[in-house]
Description:
Layout: E1 2-8, E2 18-27, E3 33-42, E4 46-58, H1 64-76, E5 95-96, E6 102-105, H2 113-120, E7 131-133, H3 134-141
Antiparallel strand pairs: 1-2, 2-3, 3-4, 5-6, 6-7
Amino acid sequence: MLRVTVELLPCGSECAKRVIATADIARLGDGALGDYRVILQEASLGVVGEPAFVRDYPRWASSVWDLTARCVAAALNDGREELPPRPVKPAVTVRTNDAGHHYVRLDEIPEPTRTFFDQNLSGSSIPDHGCAYAHDWFDFLGGQR
């Protein structure tokens, strides 16, 4: 089995590194053409989607990175060895409360962005339960949080 590990090194610091995702790629049987099963996991979300398969891959014909890329692509795109369309920033409605504060509702932010943003809000004030200030949302999208 191959395990591909994605580590985050904040500001390039080895001592602060942490694993944020893994891909487990298992070969299913022997032969010149291999079948592989891949399972993707993210530390904050757990298993991403369903296990995916790459079938009849010509073993020893290319780099391990080619197999890895095809497995990850298959896991992200319903078993097809191609990347899904490039994601876009989520369109979330900005609302205004009676006090004139602009906010977004967390339940309107699609996953996995909601989980990442919610974790990022730790220690921030909020206008109401289940909401966040719009400036925090825009700072998050801009990479400033």
